């Protein structure tokens, strides 16, 4: 919804406070915005630390991060604290019911499904609920994109409850494997929340 403006009434000159000298310009304490290719290195550093230590594999390599942030930056969302990236999501469009190997590297501009490639939180900001908050903000963002009908992702079994709490439902085992890793495919119906889109200020 549009922010309410604040009306500033003019004071007589003799009652006005002196202008502060040397005031520092501070960054917003917390900011959500789409990512750009300039954010790619910060994104990859967080992703690499988050995933290599757990599974030994990164969902996206640095060139793939740059690829998606160039083609579809509007399908990404970063959380910045005082100008520092602390968590992010990267997605792209897909045009089939289920994910295939091509979905890992391709962006289908005419698709209506958002494939969420990765959600990662910086190690010093974990266990604070930031992943859930960021996903909620991201799904709110998707509701403002009229061409998006649903979101899909694949995750390891231990992460299924986390995504279920955000409203995702299980589609079944994914046909995609990465080395020894198997995944569960999940989906979230954005179209089913059209009533929320109409009342969200989009």
TrEMBL record:
Q: Where in the cell is it found?
A: Cytoplasm
* Pathway note: Aromatic compound metabolism; melatonin biosynthesis; melatonin from serotonin: step 1/2
Among the record's GO biological process terms, what is one?
circadian rhythm
Please give an example of a GO cellular component term from this record. Answer: cytoplasm
Q: Which domain of life is it from?
A: Eukaryota
Name the chain's protein.
Serotonin N-acetyltransferase
- Per the UniProt record, one Pfam family is Acetyltransf_1
Task: State the top-level EC class.
Answer: transferase
Which CDD domains does UniProt cross-reference here?
Answer: NAT_SF
The GO molecular function terms of this record are: aralkylamine N-acetyltransferase activity
Task: Give the similarity note.
Answer: Belongs to the acetyltransferase family. AANAT subfamily.
User: What species is this protein from?
Assistant: Oryzias javanicus (Javanese ricefish)
Alphabetical keyword list: Acyltransferase, Biological rhythms, Cytoplasm, Melatonin biosynthesis, Phosphoprotein, Transferase
All copies of domain N-acetyltransferase, residue ranges: 30-191
Documented EC number(s): 2.3.1.87
The record's catalysed reaction(s) read: a 2-arylethylamine + acetyl-CoA = an N-acetyl-2-arylethylamine + CoA + H(+)
- PROSITE patterns given for it? GNAT
């Amino acid at each position: 919804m549009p922010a309410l403006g604040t009306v500033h009434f003019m004071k007589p000159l003799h009652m006005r406070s002196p202008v502060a000298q040397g005031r520092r310009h501070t960054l917003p304490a917390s900011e959500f915005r789409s990512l750009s290719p300039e954010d790619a290195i910060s994104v990859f550093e967080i992703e690499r630390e988050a995933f290599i230590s757990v599974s030994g594999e990164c969902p996206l390599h640095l060139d793939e991060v740059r690829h998606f942030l160039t083609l579809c930056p509007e399908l990404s969302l970063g959380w910045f604290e005082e100008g520092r990236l602390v968590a992010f999501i990267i997605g792209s469009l897909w045009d089939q019911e289920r994910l295939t190997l091509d979905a890992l590297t391709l962006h289908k501009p005419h698709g209506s499904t958002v494939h969420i490639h990765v959600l990662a939180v910086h190690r010093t900001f974990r266990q604070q609920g930031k992943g859930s908050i960021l996903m909620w903000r991201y799904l709110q963002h998707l509701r403002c994109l009229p061409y998006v009908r649903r979101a899909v992702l694949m995750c390891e079994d231990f992460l299924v409850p986390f995504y279920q709490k955000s409203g995702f439902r299980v589609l079944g085992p994914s046909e995609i494997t990465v080395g020894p890793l198997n995944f569960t495919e999940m989906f979230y119906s954005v179209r089913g929340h059209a009533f929320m889109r109409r009342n969200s200020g989009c």
